[in-house]
Structure formats: C-alpha cells, structure tokens
C-alpha cells in the first residue's frame, strides 16, 4: 500500500469528489519540489482502486501501478535522449501528441477511469504546452489529468485557468521527521532539523541532499563565500562541483539561493535564527556578518541571470562556480 504522511484533508477532498462524480478532469498539484506530490497522487489512485476493485484483483492492479505498467495510467516525464545520453531538459511535443491517442481511445480496463500524470508540468516546452492546452480544452469522460508543478507561476495562465488547483504546503517538523526516519536508517536529530530548515520542509529534497553528502560541501561553500577570493579549498570545491550531472548541479544552485535568501533575512534581522531548529544552521549568522547586503544581492542576481545559459549552452561549471564565489 502506498504510504503518505500528511495532506489528509487534500486527499479526502479529491477522493470524495471522485466518488461523487464531481472531480474536475484536470488537476494541478502544486507545492515545493520533493514535498511528496507524486506520492500523493499514487495514494489517491491506491484509494480509488480499493473502492473500485475487489481483494486479489486490487493487488494485481496495485502491482501494475507501482511498476508504472498499469494500462489505464499514463505517466509523462522527461525521457532519456539516446543521442546526448542524458535526460532531456523538457517534455516534448511528441510526448504530448502520443498522449492524445491514449486520451481518445477506449480504456483498456473499462470499469476503471483513465489517469494521466505529468511530472512535472514545469518541464513542458512551449510547443508541448500549447498541445496540452488543446487536450485540456476538450476533456474526455472518465479521464483525469494530474499536472504536478513545483512552481505554479511557471505554468501559462491558460493552463492554470482550466484546472482545479490543489496546494500541498510544507510539512510540519513532526511529519518531516517521520518521513526522513523511515527513509534513512542512520541520521541524528540535528541533521534532520538542519535539512528541515534548509529545504523548507521538503523530504524529497532533504533525502537528495543527504545522499549527496551535503555536509562537507556546505562547509566548504560557507568558507569560500566568506573569503570572496580563490584559494586551494575554493578550487577543490569548484573541481568537485564541476563533475556533477546537470540535475545535481541544479540542486546545488537551488541550495546556494536558499543560503543567500537566508543570509539576506539575517542581515535585516539577526533574530531570524530563532526560527530555525538546527544548531548547524545557526552558523549562517556568522556568515551574514562577513558579507554585505549588496554582495548577497549581487551573488543571487548572478545565479538568476546566468543559470539558464549555463545549462542551455553547456558552459563550464567550474568557471561558473569560481565566478560566483568571487562576485
């Protein structure tokens, strides 16, 4: 059975709407990346299957769902590019065009609805977005489209206006703590508090950062930001980061932005640290003393202005980091 921690009210709303035949054909599920939106949808489908199927038959369908092979469920996400040997940066129009066949054909299992999950809609390119819009404008009976979005503003207003919107807010610390302990066997309390502070209560992001061994990287980053010059440790940090795959490097940039936003808050009000749970996170106060507000703003603007070009043109990650750290 799919495990979901939190979001009980949001889940009940969707399940009740489905049971009463009043569920909107298109639903945007919005919330921080890693908050558990895909898990939420899987739990919703699990509950629908329980109500629609009997015993052994239910387990068979659940197994198909868990293996992404259920004939009535289609998942659209970025795919592997055989030419570049990397995951594509966007969901393409070809994927949406292929989806239309699934939308228009009769369901493989006639006594079950059809469900489409786009993970994430933020990854749709312009052509794919326009193609999807046509599908949303002509909803099919008993077919439901879930659009996962990490940032609602990334979606066109015309897409947003045609969908029911469900917002999944950050987890409280109790639920966050429960999720991390269920996924990571050996982790101490202050680490959990640190990841809660850093990720704004996003378990998925926290687990990714834990897997990336973020502690030593973060310490090196703090030290390099404080120096504002290039030393051997800064060069080593840039060398290590340059080996990251794009997705992992994007996560690191997001981490840098989070640090800079936190530093700016501390510059305005040093009592901001009272809002954080982790002892380690308190060390940001020292860093806030070492940097001027203008320098923090300049570095944030550097990331915002140059991030897209870095990945679009496959620029040198090492030079990118060194320039950022010496801004």
Question: Care to describe what's here?
Answer:
By secondary structure, this protein is an alpha/beta fold. The protein is 56% helix and 10% strand. It has helices at residues 8-19, 37-52, 55-66, 93-104, 126-137, 157-160, 173-183, 189-199, 203-211, 214-227, 232-242, 246-268, 284-290, 293-312, 317-325; strands at 26-31, 73-76, 80-81, 86-87, 114-119, 143-149, 164-168. Helix 1 packs parallel to helix 2 and helix 11 packs antiparallel against helix 15 (317-325). It starts with 7 loop residues before the first helix and ends with a helix. The mean pLDDT is 90.
Label this structure with key terms.
56% helix, 7 strands, 327 residues, alpha/beta
Question: Total strand count, please?
Answer: 7
How is the biggest beta sheet arranged?
A: 5 strands, parallel
Instruction: Count up the helices.
Output: 15
Helix content: 55-70%
Helix/strand-derived category reads: alpha/beta
Elements, N to C (H/E):
HEHHEEEHEHEHEHHHHHHHHH
| Cα end-to-end separation | 50 Å
Strand content: 5-15%
Unreliable stretches, pLDDT < 50, 5 or more residues?
none
Rounded to the nearest angstrom, the radius of gyration is: 22 Å
Mean pLDDT: 90
Instruction: Give the CA-based shape.
Output: globular
Order of adjacent strands in the largest pleated sheet: 2-5-6-1-7
**Oligomeric form:** single chain
Task: Please write out the topology.
Blueprint: H1 8-19, E1 26-31, H2 37-52, H3 55-66, E2 73-76, E3 80-81, E4 86-87, H4 93-104, E5 114-119, H5 126-137, E6 143-149, H6 157-160, E7 164-168, H7 173-183, H8 189-199, H9 203-211, H10 214-227, H11 232-242, H12 246-268, H13 284-290, H14 293-312, H15 317-325
Parallel strand pairs: 1-6, 1-7, 2-5, 5-6
Antiparallel strand pairs: 3-4
């Amino acid at each position: 059975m799919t495990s979901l921690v939190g979001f009980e009210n949001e889940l009940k709303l969707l399940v009740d709407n489905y049971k009463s035949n009043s569920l909107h054909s298109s639903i945007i599920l919005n919330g921080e990346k890693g908050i558990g939106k895909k898990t939420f949808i899987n739990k919703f489908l699990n509950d629908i299957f329980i109500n629609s199927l009997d015993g052994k038959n239910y387990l068979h369908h659940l197994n198909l769902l868990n293996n992404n092979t259920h004939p009535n469920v289609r998942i659209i996400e970025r795919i592997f590019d055989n030419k570049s040997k990397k995951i594509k940066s966007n969901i393409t129009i070809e994927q949406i065009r292929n989806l239309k066949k699934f939308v228009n054909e009769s369901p493989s299992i006639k006594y079950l609805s059809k469900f489409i999950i786009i993970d994430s809609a933020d990854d749709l390119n312009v052509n794919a977005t326009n193609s999807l819009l046509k599908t949303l404008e002509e909803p099919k009976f008993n077919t439901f489209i879930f659009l996962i979005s990490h940032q609602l503003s990334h979606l066109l207003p015309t897409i947003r206006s045609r969908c029911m919107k469900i917002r999944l807010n950050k987890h409280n610390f109790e639920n966050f703590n429960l999720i991390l302990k269920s996924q990571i066997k050996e982790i101490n309390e202050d680490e959990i508090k640190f990841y809660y502070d850093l990720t704004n209560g996003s378990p998925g992001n926290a687990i990714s950062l834990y897997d990336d061994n973020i502690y030593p990287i973060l310490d090196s980053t703090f030290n390099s930001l404080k120096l504002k010059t290039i030393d051997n440790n800064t060069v080593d940090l840039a060398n290590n980061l340059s080996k990251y795959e794009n997705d992992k490097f994007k996560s690191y940039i997001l981490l840098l932005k989070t640090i800079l936003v936190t530093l700016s808050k501390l510059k305005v009000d040093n009592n901001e640290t009272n809002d954080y749970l982790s002892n380690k996170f308190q060390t940001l106060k020292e860093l806030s003393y070492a940097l001027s507000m203008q320098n923090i703003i300049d570095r944030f603007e550097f990331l915002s202005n140059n991030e897209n070009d870095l990945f679009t043109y496959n620029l040198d990650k090492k030079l990118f980091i060194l320039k950022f750290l010496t801004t």
